[in-house]
Specification:
single chain; alpha+beta; FAD/NAD(P)-binding domain; D-Amino Acid Oxidase, Chain A, domain 2; 8-stranded mixed sheet; 6-stranded antiparallel sheet; binds flavin-adenine dinucleotide
Length: 396
C-alpha cells in the first residue's frame, strides 16, 4: 500500500479566507495543504467590490467595533502591500431628497476617521459648485453638495493569489486546485478522501473549512452534524468601459435603503452592487448577473449621471454570494442587509473548525483568530507579528 501524505492542517477552500489561514499556518511552520474544488480565488473573493474598507454603512447599525477592526486591517494592508492598494477619495453626493442628510453624513465620516485612529486620509465636504467642477456630468438638479472620505481599492483576485504564492513555495505549504473533498473520517488524525483526476487519500491532524457561502452544502455532502447557517445573498456588478464612463473619483450612489458604488480602477469602472436573497438549494458557483439586477444598477446610475450612456459602456459583469451568517436567535427571514458581517468560528467535530462570515478586508484577523484558537488548544505559542510580513507583486 502507498504511504499516504500527512499534514498538520488541511485547509478546504482557497478564497481569501483560506488563503489567509494557509499563509498564517505556513508562516508558523505548520505543514499545511490548501485545496479548492475550483481554481484558487475564483469564486466570491474575485467578485467583490474590490475595496478594503471599514464599511461606512455599518455605522448606521452601530457596529463600531467591526468598523474599527476593518479600518485597522485596511490601513495595515495599505502599508504592507502598497503595490496592490490604492487609497482614493470617495464622494457621496447629497441631493435634497437623499435618504441621509448632509450633516448626518458629515458626522458619520468624522466618526469613520476617528475609528481609524486617524490613519485614514481626512474626510471633508464639497459645495455644489466645487463638486460640479470635479464631476460636471453629475445630475445638478436638487444637488446640495458632497461629503468625502477615503478608502482603499484592490485587485481582489491577484492580491489573494499573491497571499497564497507568498508561502506556497516553502517546504511546508502545499496547494491543490480543482480538488474536491469527498470524505472525512470521524476523528483526528483524519483520513480524508480527495478527488481531482482521480480519488486519493491524505491524513491531517486538523481541518479548517474556509468554504464561505458554500459551507452548508459542503457540510451536507460530508454528512457532518450541522445546522445550516448561511443566509445566501447575491451581489452583482457591471464592468464599464473607462473610455466611455468618465469617473475620476469613486462615487457613492445613495439608493433608498442601501448604497451602490461607482469605482474607477486602472482598466475599467465597477458599478455595484445588488443584493438578492438566494434560496439555499440554488447553485452558488460561477454566477452571472440577472437582467433585473442589471436594470436596477442602470436605473440608479442614471439618477446620478443622466447624460452618460451606460448601456453602450458595459463590457462585463461579476456576481458572487456573500457568506452572511444567520444571527443566532433570528430566523432565516432576516434581510441580508441586516445580517452582521462579523466572522464566526464553529467546531462541528473535535479538531475541525469552520471559519465563515467576515469580509475580504478582515481576512488576516479572521485567520489569526482561528489559528491562535487552534494553537491555544494545543498549548502552542501564536506569533501575531508573522502575518505582518509585506506582500509584493511578483516580477512576471
Ligand atoms: C458582491 C460582493 C461584494 C463584496 N465586496 C466586498 C468589498 O468590497 N470588500 C470586502 O471586504 N468584502 C466584500 N465582500 C465580501 C467578501 O467578498 C467575502 O467575505 C469573501 O470574499 C469571502 O471569502 P471566502 O474565502 O470565505 O469565500 P470564497 O471566496 O467563496 O471561497 C470559498 C472557496 O471554497 C471552495 N469550495 C466550495 N466547495 C468546496 C469543496 N467541496 N471542496 C473544496 N473547495 C470548495 C470554492 O471553490 C471557493 O473558492 C463582497 C461580497 C460580495 C458577494
Amino acid at each position: 500500500m502507498d504511504k499516504i501524505s500527512h499534514f498538520d492542517y488541511l485547509i478546504v477552500g482557497g478564497g481569501i479566507t483560506g488563503a489567509g489561514v494557509f499563509r498564517d499556518l505556513v508562516l508558523h511552520n505548520k505543514k499545511t495543504l490548501l485545496i479548492d474544488k475550483k481554481d484558487f480565488m475564483s469564486q466570491t473573493s474575485a467578485q467583490s467590490s474590490k475595496m478594503l474598507h471599514g464599511g461606512i454603512r455599518y455605522l448606521e447599525h452601530l457596529e463600531f467595533s467591526l468598523v474599527k477592526e476593518a479600518l485597522n486591517e485596511k490601513n495595515t494592508w495599505k502599508d504592507l502591500a502598497p503595490s496592490f492598494t490604492r487609497e482614493l477619495e470617495f464622494i457621496i453626493p447629497i441631493y435634497k431628497n437623499s435618504p441621509h442628510s448632509f450633516w448626518k453624513l458629515y458626522a458619520g465620516v468624522k466618526l469613520y476617521d476617528s475609528l481609524s485612529m486617524f490613519r485614514n486620509k481626512p474626510s471633508g465636504k464639497l459645495s455644489k459648485s466645487e463638486l460640479l467642477k470635479r464631476m460636471p456630468q453629475l445630475n445638478s438638479k436638487g444637488l446640495i453638495g458632497a461629503i468625502t472620505y477615503h478608502d482603499v481599492i484592490i485587485d481582489d483576485k491577484n492580491f489573494g493569489k499573491s497571499i497564497i504564492e507568498s508561502v506556497s513555495n516553502k517546504k511546508q505549504g502545499a496547494t491543490l486546485e480543482n480538488t474536491e473533498i469527498l470524505k472525512v473520517s470521524e476523528s483526528s488524525p483524519f483520513i480524508i478522501t480527495l478527488k481531482n483526476e482521480k480519488e486519493f487519500t491524505i491524513s491531517a491532524n486538523e481541518i479548517i473549512f474556509c468554504t464561505g457561502p458554500f459551507t452548508d452544502k459542503v457540510m451536507k455532502q460530508l454528512e457532518f452534524k450541522w445546522k445550516p447557517k448561511i443566509l445566501p445573498s447575491k451581489g452583482s456588478h457591471l464592468i464599464l468601459d473607462k473610455s466611455k464612463i468618465s469617473c475620476p473619483y469613486p462615487v457613492v450612489i445613495q439608493e433608498e435603503n442601501r448604497i451602490i458604488f461607482l469605482i474607477p480602477h486602472d482598466d475599467f469602472v465597477l458599478l455595484g452592487t445588488t443584493e438578492l436573497k438566494l434560496s439555499p438549494g440554488e447553485n452558488f458557483f460561477d454566477l452571472s448577473i440577472s437582467e433585473d439586477e442589471k436594470k436596477y444598477l442602470i436605473k440608479n446610475f442614471k439618477h446620478y449621471f443622466p447624460s452618460l450612456e451606460i448601456e453602450n459602456a458595459i463590457i462585463g459583469q461579476t456576481a458572487g454570494v456573500r457568506p452572511l451568517v444567520i444571527k443566532e436567535g433570528i430566523s432565516e427571514n432576516q434581510t441580508p442587509g441586516a445580517a452582521s458581517r462579523q466572522h464566526l468560528i464553529f467546531h462541528p467535530r473535535n479538531d475541525c473548525s469552520i471559519l465563515i462570515g467576515g469580509k475580504y478586508t478582515t481576512f488576516r484577523k479572521m485567520a489569526a483568530d482561528v489559528v491562535s484558537q487552534s494553537f491555544a488548544k494545543r498549548q502552542e505559542p501564536y506569533y501575531p507579528h508573522l502575518s505582518l510580513k509585506p506582500i509584493h507583486k511578483s516580477k512576471s
